[in-house]
Amino acid sequence: MPLEKQESLSCPDAQAMLPLFADGELEAHLVQAVAAHGARCPRCDRELQRLERLQAMLREHVERQLAGITAPDLWSRILARLPEREVRVPWWQRWYGAATEWRWQPQVLWPALALVVLVTLTTLLLLRVQPRTGPTSPTTVLAGLEPPALIDFLEADVNSVAVMDDWQHHTTVLWVSEELPGAGGTEP
């Protein structure tokens, strides 16, 4: 039964929701609607009070029954009935346990662990900063291009080829010239 927030509940609808209301299982707007109806309807209010008394009696009965149970070996009997299974311990707890068994003191273990982490991070940082080496074959790499361009072979009817790379502006220039290097631009 969809209930708009402005609508009020009828007695049959409210009585159907009273057990849920007493158990605290209604949504907030339904709790407000049932409470408002109970304030106006003596019949539903009596039913709600009856449910609350019943809950209190049940709670007291269960508490009395539990208070009368004495089972000091209850937990050991429960454990005996459970199937055996391997308990997985996280790796860091195993390492810490091993370290304490070897009589490593925490004041030595934590600085050593911090040093290992520092060395690892420094190594990773330095590996990222190192320039990448080119191929081992006699090829020319146009650096600055991502991915770098490889020139395996260049055939031209020219006297001079140069590769210039400007790292700051991410520019690579391939210069092809018919002039001889050092000739000064004059042809014989």
Structure description:
The chain has 188 residues and is mainly α. It is built from six helices and four strands; from the N terminus they run H-H-H-H-H-H-E-E-E-E. The strands form two sheets. Strands 1-2 form a two-stranded antiparallel sheet. The protein starts with 10 loop residues before the first helix and ends in an 11-residue tail after the last strand. Residues 134-139 have low confidence and may be disordered.
Map the helices and strands.
Blueprint: H1 11-23, H2 28-40, H3 42-67, H4 74-81, H5 91-101, H6 106-129, E1 140-142, E2 149-151, E3 160-166, E4 171-177
Antiparallel strand pairs: 1-2, 3-4
Short structural summary:
By secondary structure, the chain is mainly alpha-helical. The chain contains six helices and four strands.
Low-confidence stretches: 134-139
Fraction in helix: 40-55%
- Mean pLDDT, to the nearest integer, reads 76
Question: What does the largest sheet look like?
Answer: 2 strands, antiparallel
Jot down its keywords:
188 residues, mainly alpha, two-stranded antiparallel ribbon, two-stranded antiparallel sheet, 6 helices, 11% strand, elongated
